User: Fold these one by one.
Assistant:
Number 1:
Amino acid sequence: MSEIKNYFKGEDAPVQDAGEGVTRKVLAHSENLMVCELHFKKGAVGALHSHPHEQCSYVISGKFEYDIGGEKMIVGPGDSTYKQPGIVHGAVCLEEGVVLDIFTPERKDFLV
């Protein structure tokens, strides 16, 4: 087990290209939990995918059409979503915005 880190400065987190029109910053994380901040340009697509992690998303700003397991819904500021492990999901950004993603366990593939 790695050393526990308790503070993560946003200004120190590198901005990662997460796909056309989407950037990601990995914020606080441990082996069991991870928080990421994603910035979407209007029209950006989070392509349909699945992974073995549980995921919650909280919309800080903007408007998104999520597809979770084939069920689509438009969400905006203050709304949140849950994705169970293995479910196919994705999103289209309808209005430029920011989403906070929380994963358990951490997404080792996001660590640079």
Number 2:
Amino acid sequence: MKRIGKPVFFIVFVLILALAYTSIFGIYGENGDFDVTYIKGINDIRWGIDIKGGVEAVFAPDGKKDATDQEMESVKSILDLRLVSQNITDYEIYPDYSNDRITVRFPWKSDEKNYDPDAAIQELASTAKLTFRAGTSADGEELLSGSDVKSAAAGYTTTSDNQHTYAVNLEFNDDGKEKFAQATSTYLNQQISIWMDDQILSAPTVNSVISDGSAQITGDFTAEEATNLANRINAGALPFNLKIESYGTISPSLGTNALTAMGIAAVAALAFILIFMVILFRLPGFIAFIALLGQLAISIMAVSGYFTVFPSFTMTIPGIAGLILSIGMGVDANIITAERIKDELWTGKTLDGCISNGTKGSFSAIFDGNVTVIIVAVILILVFGPANIFSALFGVSTTGLIYAFGYTLLVGVISNFIMGVGASRLMLKSISGYKFLRNRRLYGGKKQK
């Protein structure tokens, strides 16, 4: 067996503990008057309607407009996009084409404190028409519109007094790039105002011709306002104004104390797994538990938005079920490896040889089992994801729940490969290099004579 450096165990161990701590508690700070989230934790997870409850609203065309089926479908698609762009995957949209009504249900935000349904649904109903106009007047010549924008994202800008404020960065498509270059050339050293519907957001002075297809909306934004504005721009404008016919709150199906109960149950389950693995497999069992913590940490990261490349995810009961199933597969993977090592030890081979043969011999079984689950999880995500391919057969609510299950199952199995297969074997081969830990009984073998 190729020896792994002795410090590797402690390096991996500390890394896993750091990942576990930050994924659970997050890292927060302040930048002047702004609260800054550096790393998101469990408190930043948006829990599903079934766990935390949410909002139900019925929308109708404003001004008694008689909407066509095509317009109603367009409204449904834009509401879909707005919810998904906010990383809300546990939602339900039911259009009533005959009565021109659309019912929307979605969960509360992770940091919701006031639980005001009216405030929660306002951003969904807004038309979100973005325009660039000459001068600062509402009737100024329209130079560009939201259809010229390729993408929008929240970001930072630095003011003249070196203060950091939130802004929205825009990237124009090819047509928008040409229009913006022409507009900044025509109105050089003049103001071009940026409007959302009938509200002016910013009115910067053009200091130079901008031909790279980029622009920035500045204003007195909070982080949440900048993010919401970017989401609304990306989602586009509704074909007509919506009015709220009625709204209300939805109680969680599990009850208000469900999260606390699940947290206690999770801690108790992990403690039981630790005791079980250590009694049955001794040192490999302890290392397997450390790897399991790492697997759980990565799974939480993928849900909470810990990694900026992976947006936060709405966690539902089926999502938790997928996470639990993947943890079970992680335990199973380490049991297979530990059993193979134990079998090798009882043949009388050297400790290093037994660890090497045991890890190699168990890999194919673990790989085959996990790959088949990955294939199933990917199919569930593609078929029952935000596109709602099967919603006509199973309903919007059902498809969203199955998607949540597939997502957490996929993330859990991938993290099992990283931690349960990769990290645990590195730690085991590393720690076996210490002389006082080379007793075969620590690995499930016979008592040495």
Number 3:
Amino acid sequence: MPAFDDDDRPKKKIAHEIGQDLSLLSVDELMARIAQLQDEIKRLEADMVRKRDKRAAADQFFKR
């Protein structure tokens, strides 16, 4: 079985990096990144709500 070197694996393209130089991106690319980041914010907020709900249920159960 051949051994794989880390350099042989496909690199996952980073969609956006905080603080990244934006000067080479087109308006369309910037709009796409904004949409992607907005979707990520929604996902993070939904997860935060689920975690708060679980915590509230646990607090209620244990009468904190």
Number 4:
Amino acid sequence: MANKEKELTFEENLEKLEEIVKKLENGNVPLDDAIENFNEAMKLAKTCDEKLKNAEEKVNKILNEDGKLEEFNIEE
């Protein structure tokens, strides 16, 4: 049976990213580990960015009278 990895929430990804940043800022990380941590941090940052963009897209839509989602625009 395949073991499907649970997708982390935005908050969990952000927490892991903050831990890596603190570790790298400390400066006591061997170069190979620092590179590996940096790569993981970049993946986490990309995931967080994608989740934020997805959330923004959802927030910017409203349900119209027909029950369909459409872009929400404030006319000034």
